[in-house]
Design goal:
InterPro entries: ATPase_P-typ_cyto_dom_N (IPR023299), ATPase_P-typ_P_site (IPR018303), ATPase_P-typ_TM_dom_sf (IPR023298), ATPase_P-typ_transduc_dom_A_sf (IPR008250), HAD-like_sf (IPR036412), HAD_sf (IPR023214), P-type_ATPase_IV (IPR006539), P-type_ATPase_N (IPR032631)
Largest sheet: 9 strands, mixed
Number of strands: 41
Distance between the termini: 46 Å
Family: Belongs to the cation transport ATPase (P-type) (TC 3.A.3) family. Type IV subfamily.
Oligomer: single chain
Number of helices: 35
Number of domains: 6
Subcellular location: Membrane
Strand order of the largest sheet: 16-41-40-39-17-33-38-37-34
Enzyme class: translocase
Structural class: alpha+beta
GO molecular function, one term: ATPase-coupled intramembrane lipid transporter activity
Length: 1154
């Protein structure tokens, strides 16, 4: 059973009863109740000056911006230069500023780096300006602060710890405050925490009765000292105590309201600020989720390294060649081109050295100059191009109407732009169950009461007049609840007193042992045939757990309606009789005990402990005093197994009476533990164990959590795509298996390997037995991309038959000796996942804690090269989502914490199919091609220079810069955003096409080197054909450079056009328009008299040889590529190429749209 355990606020000890001297508890705690002052924050209520004179707490002004006007430039540049490639380009630009190395113009050489830095800086500045504006609006809000015994308006930023603040309904809370009193005489307040954790359900918070009586709407007579823990980010816990009027009492999370929450259904609240500004829990939790980088980008850095090595070799060859050339011609340097050793003019410098530094230094300078010339091989434009392409891809993902959830009104969210392409290579999906695969909308279906099973004959509540019928008053639930007629009859009759009493306590426990808030709506009259007028009041329940809401609603349907709750009391309508119960204390649910309990005083002064929890934590604290109880215990266990097999979520209910002596000892222990500032949780668990023992079993519940729409189909498609789906749930094994079967995660023909050990040794033995029994052999290398990083104790797993799959439920494996059927592995949360699990395609992990979920994801990440995706909807999934390579949050019933921590967010699990199979595939194909093309289009521009190794360039400075920035960038971006190799329909109908990402078909080392070989060929063609064509002509070097420039632009664009899969109008405009723009820019540059290339384009374009040369370059350069593509597609077509041909044939056949 999964609970949002930490969100359950404990109720305080009731102080309506007279105080009595209690005997000292027989159980002693190890530390004092009050923490020493140097270990705790001391807050003097209403006295901020005294509070802050010693500790200097943070003010309430917040700042979420990164920069100021003074720090923006240095800080932003420092952050940007964390990208190592930028340091490389900075070094290149710096080298070009040295006079001996000024290959390009000094100003022009800085332009590409400055352009990239400025674009990023402008984006960062705009984002930070928005943060500054938001901070200014937030800090200048106003609220009422107590000063000189009266409330005066003050801005939020002036509030300090110790200030007493008054907040009205629907206003936001400015700081973390301990409630002193509210408009409700009992001190209760209703809070909406949407801004903090995304949960829309109202939460109850309580002002202590001691302080609530001293608070009025216009004044606050409370003075005292609050000792609280140091500021921390845990929004579900608060440990403090308060001294007031000589009394000392505990404060916990139910007594504090946090910054960002909104007051609801309460006229006003008054509280004292304990944490302000940056020390509030909201601000401490505002840190961004860890940044992630795509795997393809890491591969790209690997290729960049190899290009750097190649660049170094080329520069070394050029430098060596220059040194040898200088040695050979050292006596002729003044009469040869490219070098001058001395001045020729008749001025004062005649005969002196002309920028000549000797052969060794000239060789060294040649090496550095070569780096400057060839640095374009490592493209600076690639980084900004990738950012723009990812932005465009995200726009289309967000706008995909097929990923819009109409039920919740939520559309797809792309919260990270760095990992779009990783969506196309996911191998493992780790999914939460509740709220992710299921709807997290609970319906009460089955009940086991006093050893008898109910729920087989269900009637609608409206058809059962006994349901919640209270004489002249009847409660109308918001949702219709089906009730069991036999169980209803049991509650009405007087026979079998024990059974009826058990049923009475059963539903009383459902109504009382919870933290839900009853919301009563309008009253109206109804008059049926033969019935008198009845007052029908609508009632709804707000709770932090959908399970609790379902159970309380079920109790109401059976005549036990909770309709009033205060800080120390609750009122239940039991079939028309008002039953007021005193709440003496509540032990909240926690993941250690896996149960919650409430201590209730009935009107006849009988004290009972009502407990509910998971079966594993309940059965070992039940009383076994007679055979009758043991029979009930065994019957209930069989019913629980039956419910779990049906996929129901189960809880066990029990109770016991407390004697006056036990009550007093528990109260003493409870008060000591609840006021402690050290290990309060452990001490409260110890106190709970004192009363949670020797319980009488009342029964068990079965609540249904239906599967979301489209989940089975989505999981089946993911499986066909070669993606391994693991489900990590906190539910018991039988429930997890049932859900696994219903959502097609598990199939009936699978053999289940069940690992259900409670120790590492037991797990090792179970795993070893399973490996032998099912033919799973260990090897140094597992399937697919499994790394050889296994523990020394265990080898990597392998399955010889590729048809075998392993998934996970709990139970006994059965009789499948030597079978070849698919395998299913089921592991309990207390077990360890070893090598066997990595060879599983389907895995079910039961009873898993949140940190265990993250540990399981980390296990796969650390031991394989495969990409992982984690998907969940609750706060307990945050660590798993952040651990995975890709995190997906579901906008569900459990708030938005998972969404806020995720990289992508969507409304339903079924959208994951479209996200991966369509957008993931397309993004990977596009980015993979984009990276290879960018390496190609920059490297092809590096041609051999027959200039005596002097690195003299035939191109103008502006042509070199504009080539990457303008001439060829726009087509790359358009194709990277819009190109589509297959239609969405084809990708969804053929999930196996997703395997192209697993096989790295779009980007791999082999493709990179093939591209580099093709690039070398095209560079040679581009250089030598114009050289041979104009061999006997008289055109100068600038004319040749102009021909090379236009030829390379046309060449790379035709090359791109050969690879485009889907043409659109904007694609035509981008590709062919870039050629037109290049000609336009060249005409402008060649029309400026001060440039050395003045007039060259006019002279060249008038010659037929010019156009024939360009045509010859395109044909010869692209002929090998065209031939290889044709041969490859005819004789070795890929799955994608086959699917494209089938799609084309289908289009012609039935007009299927792309």
């Amino acid at each position: 059973m999964e609970h949002n355990a930490t969100t359950i606020p404990p109720l305080e000890i009731s102080h309506t009863r007279p105080h009595r001297v209690r005997p000292k508890s027989s159980i002693q705690f190890d530390d004092t109740v009050i923490l020493q002052d140097d270990h705790a924050n001391l807050i003097y209520v209403g006295d901020p000056i005294k509070t802050n004179e010693k500790y200097q707490f943070a003010g309430n002004e917040i700042r979420t911006s990164r920069y100021t006007l003074l720090t923006f430039l240095p800080k932003n540049l420092f952050i940007q230069f964390h990208r190592v490639a930028y340091l490389y380009f900075l070094a290149i630009a710096a080298l070009n500023q040295l006079p001996p190395l000024a290959v390009f113009g000094r100003t022009v050489s800085l332009f590409p780096l400055l352009f990239v830095l400025c674009v990023t800086a402008i984006k960062d500045a705009y984002e930070d300006w928005r943060r500054h504006r938001s901070d200014r609006n937030e800090n200048n809000r106003e609220c009422l602060v107590l000063q000189s015994a009266q409330f005066h308006p003050m801005t939020w930023k002036t509030i300090q710890a110790g200030d007493v603040v008054k907040i009205f309904a629907d206003e936001m809370i400015p700081a973390d405050m301990v409630l002193l009193g509210t408009s409700d005489p009992s001190g209760i307040a209703y809070i909406q925490t949407m801004n903090l954790d995304g949960e829309s359900n109202l939460k109850t918070r309580y002002g202590r009765q001691e302080t609530a009586s001293a608070v009025s709407p216009d004044a606050c007579a409370v003075s005292g000292v609050i000792r609280c823990e140091q500021p921390n980010r845990n929004i579900y816990e608060f440990t403090a105590n308060m001294e007031f009027n000589g009394y000392k009492f505990p404060l916990n999370q139910s007594n504090i309201v946090l910054r960002g929450c909104v007051v609801k259904n309460t006229n006003w609240i008054i509280g004292v600020v304990v944490y302000a500004g940056q020390q509030t829990k909201a601000m401490l939790n505002s840190a961004a989720s860890p940044s992630k980088r795509s795997k393809l980008e890491s591969y790209m850095n690997r290729e960049t390294f190899w290009l750097s090595v190649f660049l170094f070799i080329m520069c070394s060859v050029v430098a060596l060649g220059m040194g040898l050339w200088l040695v050979r011609h050292k006596e002729q340097l003044d009469t040869l081109p490219y070098y001058r050793k001395t001045y020729f003019n008749n001025g004062p410098n005649n005969g002196k050295k002309y920028r000549y530094y000797g052969i060794p230094m000239e060789t060294f300078f040649s090496f550095l100059s070569s780096i400057i010339v060839f640095q374009i091989m490592i493209p600076i434009s690639l980084y900004i191009t990738m950012e723009l392409v990812r932005l465009g891809q995200s726009y289309f993902m967000v706008g995909d109407k097929d990923m819009y959830d109409a039920n919740s009104g939520s559309r797809f969210q792309c919260r990270s732009l760095n990992i779009n392409e990783d969506l196309g290579q996911i191998r493992y999906v780790f999914s939460d169950k509740t709220g992710t695969l299921t709807e997290n909308k609970m319906e009460f279906h089955r009940a086991s009461v006093h050893g008898k099973n109910y729920g087989s004959s269900l009637l609608s509540e409206d058809n059962n007049t006994a349901a919640a019928n209270s004489g002249n008053r009847r409660w109308k639930l918001k949702s219709e609840i089906a009730v069991d007629s036999e169980l209803m009859a049991l509650l009405q009759k007087d026979s079998n007193r024990d059974e009826r009493n058990a049923a009475h306590e059963f539903f009383l426990t459902l109504a009382a042992c919870n933290t839900v808030i009853p919301i009563i709506s309008s009253t109206f009259s109804s008059c049926g045939e033969g019935e008198s007028n009845e007052d029908v009041e609508g009632i709804d329940y707000q709770g932090e757990s959908p399970d609790e809401q379902a159970l309380v609603s079920a109790a109401s349907a059976y005549g036990y309606t909770l309709f009033e709750r205060t800080s120390g009391n609750l009122v239940v309508d039991v079939n028309g009789e008002k039953l007021r119960l005193d709440v003496l204390g509540l032990h909240e649910f926690d993941s250690v005990r896996k149960r919650m309990s409430v201590v209730i005083r009935f009107p006849d002064n009988v004290i009972k402990v009502l407990v509910k929890g998971a079966d594993t934590s309940m059965f070992n604290i039940l009383a076994h005093d007679n055979a009758g109880n043991n029979d009930i215990w065994h019957e209930t266990q069989s019913h629980l197994t039956e419910y779990s097999m049906q996929g129901l979520r189960t809880l066990v209910l029990a109770s016991r009476d407390l004697s006056p002596t036990e009550l007093e000892e528990w109260q003493s222990m409870y008060e000591d533990a609840s006021t402690s500032l050290i290990d309060r949780g452990a001490k409260l668990r110890q106190t709970a164990a004192f009363i949670e023992s020797d319980l009488k079993l009342l029964g068990a519940t079965g609540v249904e959590d239906k599967l979301q729409e489209g989940v089975p189909e989505a999981i089946e498609s993911l499986r066909q795509a070669g993606i391994k789906v693991w489900v990590l749930t906190g539910d018991k094994q039988e429930t997890a298996i049932s859900i696994g079967l219903s959502c097609k995660l598990l199939s009936a023909d699978m053999q289940k390997i069940i690992i259900n050990g409670t120790s590492e040794v037991e797990c090792k033995n179970l795993l070893a037995d399973a490996k032998v029994k099912y033919g799973v052999r260990s090897s140094s290398r597992g399937p697919q991309n499994l790394k050889c990083k296994t523990n020394s104790r265990h080898g990597g797993p392998d399955i010889p038959n590729h048809k075998k799959s392993i998934s996970m439920p709990k139970g006994n494996p059965g009789k499948e000796e030597g079978t070849t059927a698919p395998l299913a592995l089921i592991i309990d949360g207390t077990s360890l996942l070893f090598d066997l699990a990595t060879s599983c395609r389907v895995v079910l992990c039961c009873r898993v804690a949140p940190l265990q979920k993250a540990g399981i994801v980390d296990l796969i990440k650390s031991r394989t090269d495969d990409l992982t995706l984690a998907i969940g909807d609750g706060a307990n999934d945050v660590s798993m989502i952040q651990m995975a390579d890709v995190g997906v949050g579901i906008c569900g019933q459990e708030g938005r914490q998972a969404v806020m921590a995720s990289d992508f967010a969507m409304g339903q699990f079924q959208f994951l199919k479209r996200l991966l199979l369509v957008h993931g595939h397309l993004n990977y194909q596009r980015i993979g091609y984009l990276v290879l093309y960018n390496f190609y289009r920059n490297a092809v521009f590096v041609y051999i220079l027959c200039t005596a190794f002097s690195t003299t360039s035939a191109l103008t400075d502006w042509s070199s810069v504009l080539y990457s920035v303008i001439y060829t960038s726009i087509p790359t971006i358009i194709v990277g955003v819009l190109d589509q190799d297959l239609s969405h329909r084809t990708l969804l109908q053929n999930p196996k096409l997703y395997g192209a990402g697993h096989r790295h078909e779009a980007y791999n080392m082999q493709l990179f080197w093939i591209t580099m070989i093709d690039t070398l060929w095209q560079s040679l063609v581009l250089f030598y054909i114009p050289l041979l064509t104009y061999k006997d002509s008289t055109i100068d070097i600038w004319s040749m450079g102009s021909l090379w420039t236009i030829s390379v632009v046309i060449l790379v664009n035709v090359h791109l056009a050969m690879d485009i899969n889907q043409w659109a109008v904007v694609t035509h405009v981008a590709v062919w328009g870039s050629i037109v723009i290049t000609y336009g820019c060249m005409v402008v540059l060649d029309s400026i008299p001060v440039f050395p290339n003045y007039g060259t384009i006019y002279h060249l374009a008038s010659s037929p040889r010019y156009w024939m040369t360009i045509l010859l370059i395109i044909i010869i350069a692209l002929l090998p590529r065209f031939s290889c593509k044709a041969v490859y597609q005819i004789f070795c077509p890929s799955d994608i190429q086959i699917a494209r041909e089938a799609e084309t044939m289908r289009k012609h056949h039935d007009g299927f749209p792309s």
